[in-house]
Design goal:
Strand order of the largest sheet: 1-3-2-4-5-6-7-9-8
Number of helices: 14
Radius of gyration: 19 Å
Structural class: alpha/beta
Strand content: 15-25%
Largest sheet: 9 strands, mixed
Shape: globular
Distance between the termini: 10 Å
């Protein structure tokens, strides 16, 4: 089946992407919390009900009691920094310099926050899909983008932070599955290149990968997708995708091999999230990356 036709079949709302995007932004701001759906008061003030609830119950009470954390304010400050910078690459060295916390303590804090299902650490690979021996740089995502919105305020569709939160939303769908996810980052000459999400198969080879964009520019100017094209040329057997804001189309003329599918981010999130919940063992779940 043609990948573009497949995506139209996977989500009937693809024909009304504008409306689906409104719901997607709503999901970014309050999704992941049933009380926000059921209570208009929570939806009206998520910072008060969700943000304060997370900080007071989990960071300041549950985690310290479970792991014997002494400096809860230090842990809270780290989480705030990570949540604000969700989907961005960070390093232990920079976090240590900014916070004054030693690397071993930072590593423990990251383990605590992952155990509490507040964050997810995603590790880096190079253009050959090899891991780094000294993995000092990595990405951290909050497990639902609404965490960031609850702590720092809701975002609109054109806010500067929406790109990182859209990427966080995509990762959040895959966190429900036991999928080996990484991101790729390398340097070509003086230029840093990156692929947002790479799935490694059992042979530790890229099975599929994609870039997450909250813009239609990738579908309009696919020649600018140099990082994605470079990675695709090095791994021609893998499936490749780019997400957009509204456009759903095939891009046969792009710098990489074969044809590239462009799919709205909201459509992609809906398809992956729905199959992860309703039919996780189905082959259709894995076809959601085509």
């Amino acid at each position: 089946m043609n990948p573009v036709s497949y995506w139209f079949q996977r989500c009937s709302a693809a024909e009304n992407v504008a409306e689906l995007n409104e719901h997607f932004v709503d999901y970014i701001n309050v999704g992941g919390y049933p009380e926000a759906v059921l209570s208009s008061a929570v939806r009206a003030d998520p910072r008060r009900y969700i943000g304060a609830d997370i900080v007071d119950k989990v960071l300041l009470r549950d985690l310290p009691s479970l792991y014997g954390i002494q400096d809860v304010q230090e842990l809270n400050a780290l989480f705030m920094t990570l949540a604000y910078n969700t989907a961005n690459e960070v390093s232990l060295e920079a976090l240590s310099q900014d916070s004054g916390v030693t690397n071993p303590t930072l590593k423990r804090y990251l383990e605590y926050l992952e155990a509490a299902f507040l964050i997810k650490v995603v590790h880096r690979i190079d253009h050959s899909a090899r891991s780094f021996r000294r993995a000092s740089r990595f990405k951290v995502y909050v497990t639902t983008p609404a965490l960031r919105s609850a702590l720092f305020g809701p975002v609109a569709a054109d806010d500067q932070a929406i790109g990182a939160l859209a990427e966080t939303a995509v990762f959040a769908q895959w966190f429900h599955a036991s999928v080996d996810l990484h991101y790729a980052r390398w340097r070509t000459g003086r230029v840093d290149r990156e692929v947002d999400m790479v799935h490694l198969d059992k042979r530790q080879k890229p099975g599929w990968f994609l870039d997450v964009k909250w813009s239609d520019r990738p579908a309009q100017k696919p020649d600018e997708l140099t990082g994605l094209a470079d990675f695709a040329s090095r791994h021609p057997g893998a499936r490749v995708l780019v997400t957009t804001r509204t456009l759903l189309r095939s891009l046969p003329r792009w710098p990489g091999p074969g044809s590239l599918s462009a799919v709205p981010t909201s459509v992609y999130c809906y398809a992956v999230g729905r199959d992860a919940i309703h039919d996780p063992s189905s082959a259709r779940f894995w076809r959601a990356v085509e």
